[in-house]
Write a structure and sequence with these properties.
The protein is an alpha+beta fold. Helix content is about 45%, strand content about 25%. Helix 1 links the parallel strand 1 (about 15-20) and strand 2. It is elongated, with a radius of gyration of 52 Å. One of its GO terms (molecular function) is kinase activity.
Length: about 600
C-alpha cells in the first residue's frame, strides 16, 4: 500500500560530454566513467545528433567553446520528448561566461576547476531532482486524469448503473486495488448492502455475500463516516488495532488495507465508497472523497429516474385501466396533433388493435374525426391553447369497420418539461347513452310522461319474469270521448294528465305506472300482496280528488284489479284486471253530464 520510494539515479545513466578540452574530458571520464555511461561529441552538430539518437540524461559542455551558442540554441527546440539536463563547464573566475550560459538556457553551471566528487554529486542531485519533478508531474497528471475521467462518467453518463461501474473501474485502476465498491444504507431497516462492485482480474467478487448486513455490525466504522471523515488503514495490524473489524469481516475477505470515504446527502450518511488492498496512491484518499459528492448525486439521480419510471408505469396502467378512452397527443408548431400514448380502451372503442390505432393516427390525431366535426375539433384546440381551460365537445370518430362512433371528449392542453404542448383527451362512447335516450323517448308517452306499452313489453320479458307475486290495476278514464267531443281535445288531454299525475303519485321503484293506450292506464305492483292493491287504489283516489278540486274539474275512472302468486303471466293478469274493470262499469250506471264523469268504480278479479 506504500507509495513509491524516493527517486534514485540508476546505474548506467547516460551522459554526453560535448566540446571539451582533452584535459577536461580525461578528468571527467575518470571521475564519472564508473557510474555513468559516457558519450562524447566534439562539436555542437555532433552533440545534437547524439542527443536525438541516444537521449542522454544530461549534457556537460565547455562554455568557452565556439559551439556553445549553437548547442544551447538548438537543444530546447525538440518538442514532444524529454530534453536532457544541460550543464555548462565554466571557469570559476569568469562570471560573464557563467551568466551567459544560464541566460542561453543551461540548466546549471559547474565551476572549474572542481573535484570529481563534487561534479558527480552535482549531477546526481540534479538528475534526482529532475526525476522527482517528473514523477510529481506524472502523479499530478494521473490524479487529474483519474478525477476527470471518473467525474465525467458520473456527471455525463446516460445510464447511472453503467456510469457507476465505469467510475469504479477507473477508481480501482488508479489505486491498483483488488476491489472498488459502493455500499448503500437503508436507514429504515438499519441494513447496509454492497450495491456496486468492480474487481481486478482473478479477484473473487464479494457483492452477493455482502447484502442486508446489519448496521450494528459496522457501528464504529459508520460513526466515523457519519462525521464526514475518511478511513485509511494500511496493513492487517492497522485494521485490527482500529477496532473497526471486531467481527473479522474485512480480514476474512483477505483485506489487508483499505480506503473508505463517506457518501453524504444533506449532511446525512447514505452509504460509503471504498477500495480494498490499494497498491498505490493510498495517501490520495482525498481524491476518492472528492468523488463522493458526484457518486451521491448519481445515486440520487438513479433513484429519481427509477421513481419516475415507476410513476410512469403506474400512470400508464391507470390510463390503460381507466373506464374511458385516453389519448395524449403532441401539438406540433404547425397545429397537427400526433398521439404518443393511446390506452387500450380507446382502441377497443375504435374497433382497432393498438398497433392499428397507432399507425392510423400517427400522421395527425384528427385523422379519424368525422369530416363534419373536424372544424369544430380544430377550433376547440385553438381555444384550448389560448385559454388552457378544459373543453367538452361531442364528435364522431371512425371505427375500424368504417362506421363512426359518437364520443364525448374532455380536452385539456398542458406543457411538458421541455415546453412542448400536450393535448390530453378523455373519451366516452356515447353509443349506449344515445341509444338509452332514444329508447327512453320511445318508451315514454309524450302527453302524460308515463312509460308506454313499448316499455311494458320490455319489462314483461325481463324484470317481471322473476317476480314471486304480482298485482295489476287497470284504469279506464270515464267519458273521455264526451269531453273531447263537447269541450275539445285540449280539455280531454288535461283530463288524461290529471289521471296520469294521480297514478304517478302512487308509483315507486316497485310500483310502476303505464299509459296503456287511449283512455287506459296500468299499474304493476311487483312482489306485492293482494291487500296492497286496495291501498294503492285508495291513495290514487285521494290524489285524483285533490287534483280535480285544484283544477275545478270532474275527473273519474273505473278501476279493475287482479293479483297472483307465481307462476303467472302478465298478459293474463292484465286481461283479468281489464275484465274486472268492465264488470265494475256495468254495475255502476250513474248518469253524468258532458262536463264530468262517474264516481270511480272498483272491480276485482282473483
Amino acid at each position: 500500500m506504500a507509495d513509491a520510494n524516493p527517486v534514485e539515479v540508476q546505474p548506467g545513466t547516460t551522459l554526453l560530454l560535448a566540446c571539451l578540452e582533452d584535459t577536461d574530458r580525461a578528468a571527467l571520464e575518470e571521475a564519472l566513467g564508473r557510474e555513468f555511461r559516457l558519450l562524447f561529441a566534439k562539436s555542437a552538430c555532433e552533440a545534437l545528433g547524439t542527443m536525438r539518437a541516444q537521449a542522454p540524461a544530461a549534457v556537460l559542455f565547455n562554455a568557452l567553446s565556439p559551439d556553445a551558442d549553437a548547442l544551447l540554441g538548438q537543444q530546447h527546440r525538440d518538442e514532444g520528448r524529454q530534453n536532457p539536463l544541460v550543464f555548462a563547464l565554466a571557469p570559476r573566475n569568469d562570471e560573464d561566461i557563467q551568466v551567459t550560459a544560464l541566460e542561453q538556457g543551461a540548466d546549471g553551471v559547474i565551476l572549474l576547476p572542481a573535484s570529481p566528487r563534487l561534479v558527480r554529486a552535482h549531477l546526481e542531485n540534479a538528475l534526482r531532482s529532475r526525476d522527482a519533478a517528473a514523477a510529481r508531474s506524472q502523479e499530478t497528471s494521473d490524479q487529474l486524469r483519474f478525477l476527470n475521467d471518473a467525474s465525467r462518467y458520473l456527471l455525463a453518463g446516460a445510464d447511472p448503473d453503467d456510469s457507476i461501474g465505469l467510475a469504479l473501474d477507473k477508481t480501482r485502476e488508479y489505486f491498483e486495488g483488488d476491489r472498488a465498491y459502493v455500499f448503500e444504507i437503508d436507514d429504515e431497516r438499519e441494513l447496509a448492502s454492497n450495491t456496486y462492485e468492480c474487481c481486478a482480474p482473478g479477484v473473487a467478487a464479494e457483492q452477493q455475500n455482502l447484502q442486508d448486513l446489519p448496521c450494528s455490525t459496522y457501528r464504529r466504522m459508520l460513526d466515523i463516516l457519519k462525521a464526514g471523515e475518511s478511513i485509511c488503514l494500511d496493513g492487517v495490524e492497522a485494521i485490527l488495532e482500529s477496532g473497526l473489524d471486531e467481527n473479522r469481516i474485512f480480514t476474512s475477505q483477505g483485506i489487508e488495507s483499505l480506503i473508505l470515504v463517506p457518501l453524504r446527502s444533506g449532511g446525512h450518511l447514505v452509504g460509503f465508497m471504498g477500495v480494498d488492498n490499494p497498491a498505490r496512491n493510498a495517501s490520495h484518499a482525498s481524491h476518492l472523497a472528492a468523488l463522493g459528492d458526484y457518486m451521491t448525486a448519481i445515486l440520487q439521480r438513479r433513484d429519481n429516474e427509477e421513481q419516475i419510471l415507476r410513476d410512469n408505469r403506474i400512470l400508464r396502467d391507470l390510463m390503460n385501466d381507466m373506464p374511458g378512452g385516453f389519448v395524449q397527443q403532441l401539438v406540433t408548431p404547425e397545429g397537427r396533433t400526433v398521439p404518443h400514448f393511446i390506452n387500450e380502451e380507446f382502441c377497443r372503442m375504435s374497433g382497432m388493435s393498438h398497433r392499428e390505432c397507432t399507425d392510423f393516427y400517427s400522421a395527425d390525431g384528427f385523422t379519424g374525426v368525422h369530416p363534419d366535426d373536424e372544424e369544430m375539433a380544430r377550433q376547440a384546440l385553438e381555444k384550448l391553447i389560448t385559454t388552457r381551460e378544459t373543453i367538452t365537445v361531442r364528435l364522431r370518430l371512425i371505427r375500424g369497420d368504417g362506421s363512426y362512433v359518437p364520443m364525448q371528449v374532455f380536452y385539456r392542453v398542458t406543457d411538458d418539461r421541455d415546453g412542448n404542448l400536450l393535448l390530453s383527451g378523455y373519451y366516452t362512447d356515447l353509443t349506449e347513452e344515445l341509444a338509452a335516450k332514444e329508447r327512453a323517448i320511445a318508451e315514454r308517452d309524450e302527453l302524460t310522461g308515463l312509460p308506454n306499452r313499448t316499455r311494458l313489453a320490455r319489462m314483461r320479458t325481463s324484470v317481471y319474469q322473476g317476480l314471486s307475486s304480482c298485482g295489476v290495476l287497470f284504469f279506464d278514464v270515464n267519458h273521455l270521448k264526451a269531453v273531447n267531443d263537447t269541450q275539445g281535445h285540449g280539455r280531454g288531454d288535461a283530463l288524461l294528465k290529471l289521471v296520469s299525475d294521480s297514478i304517478r303519485s302512487i308509483t315507486d321503484e316497485r310500483v310502476h305506472g303505464y299509459r296503456y293506450g287511449g283512455d287506459e292506464f296500468l299499474v304493476v305492483a311487483c312482489d306485492s300482496d293482494e291487500a296492497e292493491l286496495a291501498k294503492l287504489v285508495e291513495r290514487w283516489e285521494e290524489h285524483l280528488g285533490k287534483l280535480a278540486e285544484t283544477h275545478d274539474v270532474v275527473a273519474t275512472a273505473a278501476v279493475g284489479s287482479c293479483w297472483s302468486k307465481a307462476p303467472f303471466t302478465l298478459n293474463n293478469l292484465i286481461k283479468r284486471a281489464d275484465e274486472a274493470m268492465y264488470a265494475e262499469k256495468r254495475r255502476v250506471r250513474e248518469h253524468v253530464d258532458g262536463q264530468g264523469g262517474l264516481t270511480a268504480g272498483k272491480g276485482t278479479s282473483s
